[in-house]
Design goal:
The chain is of the alpha+beta class. 18% of the residues lie in helices and 23% in strands. The chain has a three-stranded antiparallel sheet, with no helix packed on it. Strands 6-9-8 form a three-stranded mixed sheet. A hairpin with a 5-residue loop joins strand 4 and strand 5. The longest helix is centred in the C-terminal third of the chain and has 22 residues, at 149-170.
Amino acid sequence: MTAPARVTTAEVEVLTAEVRVLMVGSRQVTLSVARQLDLVDLDALEPFGRVRTREHDYAVIGKHRQSGVLVIAPYLPQPPILHFLAAELPGRITACATLLRTARQYAIGLQLRYDDWPITVPTECVNVCGKHAGYERHGCEHWEPGEVAPVIARDVRRARQAFAPHVAAAAMPLIVLAGLR
């Protein structure tokens, strides 16, 4: 004997989405117009929202703060890597051997994260950590900035402040540009 068929109820769920368009007068700004706008620095415009063009996947469009004309400004979607030179560091960092072996593939040095910010330091500024030698097989990636911490912290703080407008730009709503008519 077969089990009776289970009866389920059909439902319709209505979802809404907001689509933003940019109008100049009574006309919608097209992708081809946006591609011809002057490029300015991010801090030189009052942004309306993010746009994507062939040339710039990461850009905001808005009016120039001084002239009021429509302009576009590229922004960085990810924080830039801070590169330190040996002459900039007042000492050496300590890192486990596993991390050092992984970093040898980088010509510029050891790539690390400090306060969740990407940095590189020259491998000649790194001491091998003996404390974590037994963890090599387990992928230990421990490192300690030691006496170079104030220098790295200062530069990361400055980079974070300079990157703040890029974070704000990335959080803006996307404006859909019209195609040709």
